[in-house]
């Protein structure tokens, strides 16, 4: 697990470091508007989570996990270096001639789009397969699986913590030409993760029985259909022993569990739509409306550094959550999977409700607010994330039929694709004094407080509906009529 931990840590260092400066690069070096930056950001992050559906299918059907991970890592490294080359071509005398449209591009913008394209395709092969391999290291009913995914999630957030600090320090200096150094650091991080995986995979990535994990497609793991056995949960438990297995019909229990994955994937859209404001509207707010000057040492906190608050909180509180769930289980009071996700949505809604207070201050004429307000919402978002993301990853590996595990992991990430597109759209409504206030569902978004209330209401409604149907989902998970 720790080989996968380190591999994912460096890949997330690469991704989140680039993400921390992406919108700032578009604003300051490509001269895009807030609305157009939000649109590009939404398309990019949406497609990043859409392509895992394709990458999961290719891995399940043809390549296996290992080949897919290596291919994805190479493409993502090339994508980061393409962004660095784009930044290298920046010139302060360059006038943005495309007027925020998609029709004409200069060399800087072409390399920028090429970099995003390579990152999108590479992530599609990498993301679902690294998560699937974690689940493959444990027996189907191993009680440690949820905790293992929480620990794995700490690896993700260790990379996400370091990335904005390092890459923000290198790239977010106030000089748009320096973004190049941030993108180079992100590319180097991806290469480090790839090297760790290639060197350690054969020795350490094995099942409890000692069989190699992730070499062959899952549908080729069995010598013949007669060897297939289903456990009491309806899942395939046969070890990776050989040749061709294909076209085994799904059981009724498997179909119900797949249905649960789709339902939970739908509700998680509302969580990530609000959560992903970190890269756009919350970054805009931090840059324009937060007092970032540390007076004692006369140091201006880089805007990108605020994105390290969430992963830092993950590293602090994830071990507590990893202990909490087994402890509640031993006391027979552990919330069901749908209830955990509803709790996560409620916590997220509370975080944005907290943010409406400083937003209201800005609306009433305050020039800047304390950075502690942003720290507060990021911590609340973290609590919600710990109730949703690692638990959701674990649930997909538990509920999926073995031969469709990577594909259904792609479905889980498909919800993130939809939410990132929604996040970009909603962020485009961010108040801009130079423009007429936009209208959403008949409401004029004419202030920061109104803007952030969108996410309060959206998350709270999703939580209420999920709580109302939780009993039905639990019955479907266990095949109870």
Short note summarizing the structure:
The protein has 481 residues and is mainly alpha-helical.
Question: Key terms for this structure?
Answer:
481 residues, mainly alpha, Growth Hormone, Chain: A, two-stranded antiparallel ribbon, 16 helices, 4 strands, 67% helix, globular
Q: What string, H for helix and E for strand, traces the elements in order? A: HHHHHHHHHEEHHHHHEEHH
How many H/I helices? 16
Mean pLDDT: 84
| Radius of gyration, taken over Cα atoms and rounded to an integer in Å | 22 Å
Question: What is the 3D shape?
Answer: globular
Q: What is the topology, as strand order, of the major beta sheet?
A: 1-2
Name the CATH homologous superfamily.
MFS general substrate transporter like domains
| CATH class wording | Mainly Alpha
State the distance separating the first and last CA atoms.
36 Å
CATH topology (level 3) name: Growth Hormone, Chain: A
Beta-strand percentage? under 5%
Q: How many structural domains can be distinguished in the coordinates?
A: 1
Which blocks of ≥5 consecutive residues have pLDDT under 50? Answer: 221-246
- Structural class, judged by helices and strands? mainly alpha
Description:
- The chain is 67% helix and 2% strand.
- Strands 1-2 form a two-stranded antiparallel sheet.
- The chain is globular and about 60 Å long.
- It is built from 16 helices and 4 strands.
- The relative contact order is 0.16.
- By secondary structure, it is mostly helical.
- The chain has one domain (2-477): Growth Hormone, Chain: A (Up-down Bundle), CATH 1.20.1250.20.
- Residues 221-246 have low confidence and may be disordered.
């Amino acid at each position: 697990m720790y080989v996968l931990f380190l591999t994912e840590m460096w890949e997330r260092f690469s991704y989140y470091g680039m993400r921390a400066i992406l919108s700032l690069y578009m604003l300051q070096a490509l001269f895009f508007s807030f609305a157009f930056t939000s649109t590009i950001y939404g398309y990019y992050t949406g497609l990043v989570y859409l392509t895992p559906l394709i990458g999961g299918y290719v891995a399940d059907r043809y390549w296996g996990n290992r080949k897919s991970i290596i291919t994805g890592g190479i493409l993502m490294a090339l994508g980061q270096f393409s962004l660095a080359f784009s930044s290298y071509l920046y010139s302060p005398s360059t006038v943005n001639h495309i007027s925020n449209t998609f029709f004409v591009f200069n060399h800087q913008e072409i390399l920028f789009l090429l970099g995003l394209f390579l990152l999108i395709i590479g992530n599609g092969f990498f993301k679902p397969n690294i998560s699937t391999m974690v689940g493959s290291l444990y027996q189907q009913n191993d009680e440690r699986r949820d905790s293992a995914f929480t620990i794995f999630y700490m690896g993700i957030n260790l990379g996400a913590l370091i990335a904005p600090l390092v890459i923000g320090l290198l790239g977010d200096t106030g000089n748009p030409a320096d973004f190049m150094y941030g993108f180079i650091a992100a590319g180097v991080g991806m290469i480090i993760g790839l090297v760790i995986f290639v060197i350690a995979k054969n020795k350490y990535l094995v099942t409890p029985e000692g069989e190699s994990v992730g070499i062959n497609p899952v549908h080729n793991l069995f010598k013949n259909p007669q060897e297939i056995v289903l456990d009491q949960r309806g899942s395939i438990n046969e070890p990776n022993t050989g040749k061709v297995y294909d076209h085994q019909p799904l059981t009724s229990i498997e179909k119900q569990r797949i249905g649960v994955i789709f339902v939970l994937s739908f509700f998680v859209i509302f969580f990530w739509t609000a959560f992903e404001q970190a890269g756009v509207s919350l970054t805009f707010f931090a840059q324009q409306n937060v007092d970032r000057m540390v007076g004692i040492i006369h140091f201006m906190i880089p805007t990108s550094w605020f994105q390290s608050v969430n992963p830092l909180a993950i590293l602090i509180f994830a071990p507590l959550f990893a202990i909490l769930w087994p402890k509640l289980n031993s006391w027979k009071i552990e919330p069901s999977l749908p209830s955990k996700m509803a709790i996560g949505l409620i916590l997220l809604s509370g975080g944005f409700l907290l943010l409406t207070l400083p937003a209201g201050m800005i609306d009433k004429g305050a020039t800047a607010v304390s950075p502690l307000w942003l720290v507060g919402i990021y911590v609340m978002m973290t609590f919600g994330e710990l109730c949703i993301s690692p638990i959701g990853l674990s649930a997909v590996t538990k509920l999926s039929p073995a031969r469709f595990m990577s594909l259904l992991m792609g479905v889980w990430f498909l919800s993130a694709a939809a939410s990132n597109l929604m996040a970009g759209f909603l962020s485009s409504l961010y108040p801009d004094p130079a423009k007429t206030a936009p209208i959403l569902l008949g409401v004029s978004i004419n202030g920061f407080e109104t803007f952030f209330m969108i996410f309060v209401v959206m998350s709270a409604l999703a939580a209420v509906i999920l709580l109302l149907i939780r009993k039905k989902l639990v019955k479907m998970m266990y095949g109870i009529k």
